[in-house]
Amino acid sequence: MRYWIKYSLILLLMSTKPVAGDAQQTYPLTLDDLFRLGTENSLHLKASRMQEVIAGDEEKTARTARLPDISIGATAGYIGQTTIFRQGLSKPTHPDMPDWSHNYNVEVTQPLYQGGKIRGTIRRATLQKQVASLYTANDQADIKLSLLRQYMDLFALYKETEVLARNIEESRRRLEDIRRLWKEGIVTRNDEIRSELQLTNDDLALREAKDNITIVSQQLDIVLGLDETLLLLPDTTLLSAGVTLGSCEAYIQQAYTHFPGLQIARYNTRLAENDIRISRADYLPSLAIHAGNTLSRPLTSTMDDMFANNWNVALSLSYSLSSLYRNKHKMHEARQYVSLRRNAEEQMMQEIRVNVRSAYIRHQEAIDRVKALKLSVRQANENYRIVNNRYLNQLSILTDLLDASSVRLEAELQLTTAQSEAVYTYYQLMHACGNL
Q1: What radius of gyration, in Å, describes the C-alpha atoms of the chain?
Q2: What is the C-alpha to C-alpha distance for residues 400 and 73, in angstroms, rounded to an integer?
Q3: Model's pTM, two decimal places?
Q4: Share of the chain above pLDDT 70, in %
Q5: Are the CB atoms for 74 and 101 separated by under 8 Å?
Q6: Among 13, 41, 59, 68, which is most buried by a count of CB atoms within 10 Å?
Q7: Do residues 55 and 124 touch, judged by C-beta distance below 8 A?
């Protein structure tokens, strides 16, 4: 009696509470749309693009160092009374002189040569801008791979609901056959109860899978900038798309060319080499041309209250002798940074070889697993057919039939997981090669 009460409550709960997401609006989502919406709405990528814009502005600022330095100025002030001592500090006199002074000037300084420091600074800013764009590309690839993981989980959940729905339909037909056999007195009431319990468990598993679809869809909706109530429908043709796998060494060579992390390491090496050029510029002289015009009163020579205008053009050459002993250690530091960056570049190449080979092996493993599980599904279906016929002919017990059904269900679910994993491992390989 307690069992029947519990079983009735479960059936009542499932019949009165609608399955989550049944009435929700669906949205077909292809893989291209996933990547496009994900990169357009990612807050992390927006921050990376801001850094890229900042680096571009820094490059433009560095280029302005080639332009002349122009300044204008104006000075107005009160001139105090001058005292002149005609004999030592005696016989003071106070000559007549104007009380106010004015000075207006324009100065232009154009750098001509600074030992390559300006050119090196501009080159550094250009390299930093390229590094910023590579960081954006690297972040974009990471986001795509993260989105793909959720997308394939969603795909696997939909396939799971299909398998469970088909299994539930088969369980219902089996339950009808068992009830017919029970009425004919061929099987016991216990067989009917166990079949009903199996059907209840399958219904609950289907409910859980549908709830998981709703949860994963909401997570993707928020990231992609969509209405979070939409149920996303993944592209069902994704698994059927044929992919020709090349050699592992070919993928490693692609990674050496395209992987953003390695390109960033190479640019960092070039930045360190450029810093050597900038440090070396301190050993060289600086040359600049200077021009100015000044309008002032009173006259500085006679202190007459009149305006005087004068202009000048000069060539300025300077050399810092202190750089001969101050720049020595700075140059050594810059060379050590170059060696350090080259070491980091070599480490990155080793890491790429390991990651690409691992991703290549994992993808081959995933393909082989799909092939093996397809055979397992065919064998599980054949096993279920045989045991089902034996049970209907009273040559086996219900436990054998339920075990065969569970084995078939497990094999189909494993195949679904393996198929989605094969797609994911392929894109992992593309990510490791820098092609995502």
Answers
A1: 40
A2: 100
A3: 0.77
A4: 92
A5: no
A6: 59
A7: no
